[in-house]
Amino acid sequence: MRDKTVAQNFRKISSIPAPERRFCDNSGLSPIRAAAMHLPHIEPLYSLSGLAVGFLVGLTGVGGGSLMTPILVLLFNVHPATAVGTDLLYAAATKSAGTLVHGLKGSVDWRVTLRLAAGSVPAATITLILLHRYGMDTPRAGHLIQAVLGAALLITAVALLFRPQLAAFAARHRHGPSETRTLLFTILTGAILGALVSLTSVGAGAIGVTVLLLLYPALPTVRIVGSDVAHAVPLTLLAGAGHWLLGSIDWSMLLSLLCGSLPGIAIGSMLSSRAPEKLLRMLLAATLTLVGVRLVLA
């Protein structure tokens, strides 16, 4: 009787197609457990890095891509293209929450946001097409992304250091350029940011805000920041989707980063009013300078 039952079970297993039969072989795993093994899993070190970066972003409003991408490249030895692509979707998720808050507070000037997007969306699309055409997984592409990333970090550091002086200059010249020039320069700024963010994931924050301070001196700083954050959402989503199609997204890494960064941003935001803003800005600028030089020289 037992032999007959074994024979019947053998015939049942043999009738299952080969791709499905692998779950019934020597592994002893059910299809559900075997499928679960292929789901993204949490890496504690990535989550810890996300927590630290998220805390700094909540505390200072700066540092998402400019800190996360270099950490992935230099500390975790992630390929620059994968680090950029994963960080773009990470930034899209975190900045979406920031845009919701700014939108509810009424601190977004949608006119400025649309002008930036008019330049950044086409520029990001062209950059992604060029990356697809020339390849992203080659050593040459990795070196190019790393060098441009280093240069973007150095520009970001300068923008952070001199932001108060630029804000004071803008306050003294509240008339600013003419409306036509403001429109053209805003679209041009968006185009530069679109290419830079698609290539490095850096620039939408500190660089964008610094330029907008000069172009819109009569606009309150909180509305400039809100408009810049709102513009970063479609830009990082588009660039992140492009990198996804190019195959440069690590979903396990992305999930791990978000698990740490979302609570980190919340904690940092609650403590931001007590933080020594000037000291943090100088430390962040010094860190970005060191990392930028390291990436450029590498």
Instruction: State the end-to-end distance.
Output: 71 Å
Total tally of structural domains: 2
Average pLDDT works out at 80
* Main beta-sheet strand count, sense and barrel state: none
Helix content: over 70%
- Mind telling me the C-alpha Rg? 23 Å
List the quaternary state of the chains. Answer: single chain
Structural class based on helices, strands and sheet pairing? mainly alpha
Number of helices: 14
Brief summary:
By secondary structure, the protein is an all-alpha fold.
How would you describe this protein?
With about 300 residues, this protein is mostly helical. It folds into 2 domains: about 1-35, no CATH class; about 45-295, no CATH class. About 80% of the residues lie in helices and about 0% in strands. The chain contains 14 helices and no strands. It has helices at about 1-15, 20, 30-35, 45-60, 65-75, 80-105, 110-135, 140-160, 165-170, 180-200, 205-215, 220-245, 250-270, 275-295. The chain is globular. It is found in: Cell membrane; Membrane.
Output the keywords.
mainly alpha
List the helices and strands and how they pair.
Blueprint: H1 2-14, H2 18-21, H3 31-36, H4 44-60, H5 64-75, H6 80-105, H7 110-134, H8 139-161, H9 163-172, H10 179-200, H11 206-215, H12 221-245, H13 251-271, H14 277-297
